[in-house]
Amino acid sequence: MYQIDETRNKINRLKEETFSDLGFKEREHLQEWISKDPDCLGEELLIIQKEFDGFQDTRERLDLLAIDKQGNLVIIENKLDDSGKDVTWQVIKYASYCSSLSKDDIRSIFQDYLKKSGQEADAEENLAEFLDKEDFSEVLLNQGAAQRIIMIAAQFRKEVTSTVLWLMNFNIRIQCFKVTPYTFGDQLFLNFDQILPVVDAQEYSISMASKAQEEIATQENLKQRHHIRLEFWRKFLGHVNRKNSLFSNISPSKENWLGTGIGMSGLSLNMVVSGKYARAELFINRETKEESKTCFDYLYSKKDQIENDFGDSLVWERKDQNKTCRIKAQKDGLSLYDKEDWDEMIEHMSDVGERMEKALRNPVKQLNVKIKRGDL
C-alpha cells in the first residue's frame, strides 16, 4: 500500500506492521473499530451486540453480532495477527447457536446493547428503519438457515481457508477479511481486504455453491429412489416367481427396469417402471442401428399373429432416429413412488410380461435363425 505525495508527485510505500508490534488488542481496539464503523466490511451492517454470551448451557461468547440489510444475522469473529486453527469450528458453533434466535430475542438483544452503550433509542424503531420498513411488525429477522459468518484476521492459516472453501460448497455464507495495519511516519493506516470469497468471483462462487448444493440434493434424491426401486423389485420378483420362471435367476435392481433374455442376443424382455407408468416391453438393441431396424421390421411383419397370440394390441415403436426399438404394453397413471399403486403395477407387468413372452417366443426364434443364415 502506498501514500500519494502530490507535492513531489511520487508515491511512498507504507510499512506493513503487526497489531502486536503496534500494541493493539483484539477486544479493546479492532473490535471497537469495527463496531463503530461496520461499513469497513464493505456493506451496511447494524451491530446489535458486542461480546454476546446469551447462549444457554455455555459460557462462550462471540465478538460481534450484526444484522444485514436482508434481516440475516451476521456473526463476526475477530482475530489479530493469526486466525488460529480452530476459528472455523468456533464460528460454526456460534452460527448454530444463533440460528434459533427469534425475532423477539433479537429485539431484546439489541435493546440491551443500546442500553449498555448509553443510547436512549428504541430497538424496534432502529431495526425497522435500518431494514426500510414502516413498522417493526413488517420486519423479518433470522429466517431459516440464512445466518452469515465473517472472520477477520491479519493472517489466515491454510487449515482455515481450506475449510472455508469446502463449507462454501454447502451454501454456508462465510467470508474472510484480511486486515492489515500500516504506518507511515507517525500516521497509522488500516486496510480491510476480503480474500474469501474473492470479491470479483463472489457471484461465480455463489453460483458454484448453488450448483454443488443442487448436485448433492440430486444425489440424495437418487439414493432414495434406489432404495425404493430395490424394494419394489423385491416385491415384484417375489410375486412373478410364484407364477413362472421368466425372472427366476434375476436379482432386484436399483434401476427403473428389470430385464431377462428371450433367446436372441440384443433382444430382451424388460419390465419398466416410473413415476407415471408400468410396462412390459421387448427391447431391441443390436450392435448396429440397421440390425435393430431389421429385427423390428421382421417382427412387425408378424404383427397380426403376435397381437392375436398376445390377446390385445401392442405399441410398436421403431424410433427411426435411434439405434433401439421397442414393442410394449404400457399402463399409464401408475407411480412407483406411490406404494398404493405397487400391487396394480406388479399385476399388470407380470400378466402382460408372461403373455408377451409367449407371443414373441416363436417369432424371435425364427428371426434368430434368419439372422444367422443371413436371410435378412
3D structure, described in words:
With 376 residues, the protein is α+β, with helices and mostly antiparallel strands. It has two domains: 2-197, 3-Layer(aba) Sandwich (Trna Endonuclease, Chain: A, domain 1), CATH 3.40.1350.10; 225-373, Yope Regulator, Chain: A (2-Layer Sandwich). It contains ten helices and 14 strands. It has helices spanning 19-22, 26-36, 87-98, 103-116, 123-130, 158-168, 202-240, 289-301, 303-310, 342-373; strands at residues 2-5, 10-13, 15-16, 45-52, 62-68, 73-78, 148-153, 173-184, 187-196, 257-261, 267-273, 277-284, 315-317, 325-332. α7 (202-240) crosses α10 and α9 (303-310) packs antiparallel against α10. It is elongated and about 100 Å long. The chain starts with a strand and ends with a helix. 26% of the residues are buried.
Distance between the first and last residues' Cα: 82 Å
The whole-angstrom Rg is: 34 Å
How many E strands? 14
Residue fraction in strands? 15-25%
Uncertain regions: pLDDT < 50 for 5+ in a row? none
Shape: elongated
Which second-level CATH architecture of the largest domain applies?
3-Layer(aba) Sandwich
Number of helices: 10
> H/E series, N to C?
EEEHHEEEHHHEHEEHEEEHHEEH
Q: What structural category do the secondary elements indicate?
A: alpha+beta
Number of domains: 2
**Overall average pLDDT:** 92
User: If you consult CATH, what is the topology of the largest domain?
Assistant: Trna Endonuclease, Chain: A, domain 1
Major sheet details: 7 strands, mixed
What is the CATH C level class of the largest domain, in words? Alpha Beta
Helix content: 40-55%
